[in-house]
Amino acid sequence: MRNFDFSPLYRATVGFDRVADLMDRISAADVGQPTYPPYNIEKTDENAYRISIAVAGFGSDELSVELRDGALIVTGRKAEEAGARTYLHRGIATRAFERRFALADHMKVSGASHADGMLHIDLLREVPEALKPRRIEIAGPTTVEAKRVETVEA
After folding, report:
1. What is 36-81+89-133's CATH topology?
2. Confidence (pTM)
């Protein structure tokens, strides 16, 4: 794996700290990144997304979804069982986990639901009106002449 030096990016740009930090995190991520629990990310609409995480064995009270510093953090902590169980085979992993998802600017969590062993987190991109594209009216020469005449006569 190659290592990239992003320090020139820090010297030559202003206000792109999140992008540079994200690039640092991605390049420094270990190849053996944890794969538990498995998840899907799907685009459900033009500005809507859904993260689905397989959380078999976890109750809603044992899961936490938090939005902090531009990151969505999902954690699962299994409550201690009162009685000791003896398993002949244990194939359902219920170990504690933490999953982090870096979110783009203007991404909002619109809801979360837990059903049938799946945790669904719905995200929505809400671009502020000031940042949306807008059409600028172009004045023709007759419009400009009319305004000049009005100001001179007044």
Report:
1. Immunoglobulin-like (2.60.40)
2. 0.67
